[in-house]
């Protein structure tokens, strides 16, 4: 089961970063390269524990649907979402926010996933999927950084 960890230093306080990371509109804006949009469940505003969001986006040239549920949250410190329906066998995405000494934030994404299709899925991980997911997380984190630092 691949695990991707990405750290992003942001010159904005944790509450700003935390709220932007769970905002549906911000998610859409920071994933514009895949045309992601919330199509049901929470479709605007801030995601809360127990809420479900169904996303539609284009990956590898194919329109895909993915439904995730926010399962845990400690305000301004972390939240976790898990896939309840979608292309993966499973995934858990933890978003962590730690204050730096200068009042900024270290945002850490921990994305654990299992590809479908057994051995073929593991081969896809090695050949391209893990690299693709790292790139998506990095782009989203960079976009979130820009947005958060503008709000500071």
TrEMBL record:
InterPro entries: COQ10_START, START-like_dom_sf. Signal peptide: none annotated. It holds the Pfam family Polyketide_cyc. Residues 10-125 form the Coenzyme Q-binding protein COQ10 START domain. SUPFAM superfamilies: Bet v1-like. It comes from the Bacteria. This is SRPBCC family protein. The lineage of its organism: Bacteria, Bacillati, Bacillota, Bacilli, Bacillales.
């Amino acid at each position: 089961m691949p695990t991707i960890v990405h750290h992003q230093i942001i010159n904005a306080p944790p509450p700003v970063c935390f709220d932007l990371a769970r905002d549906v509109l911000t998610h859409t804006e920071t994933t514009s390269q895949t045309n992601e949009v919330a199509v049901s469940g929470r479709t605007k505003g801030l995601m809360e524990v127990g809420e479900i969001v169904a996303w539609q986006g284009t990956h590898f040239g194919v329109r895909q649907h993915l439904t995730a549920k926010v399962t845990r949250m400690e305000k301004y410190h972390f939240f976790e979402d898990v896939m309840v329906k979608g292309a993966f066998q499973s995934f858990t995405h933890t978003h962590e926010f730690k204050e730096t000494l200068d009042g900024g934030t270290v945002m850490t994404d921990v994305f654990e996933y299992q590809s479908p299709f057994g051995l073929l899925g593991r081969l896809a991980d090695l050949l391209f999927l893990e690299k693709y997911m790292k790139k998506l997380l990095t782009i989203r984190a960079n976009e979130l950084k820009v947005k958060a630092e503008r709000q500071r």
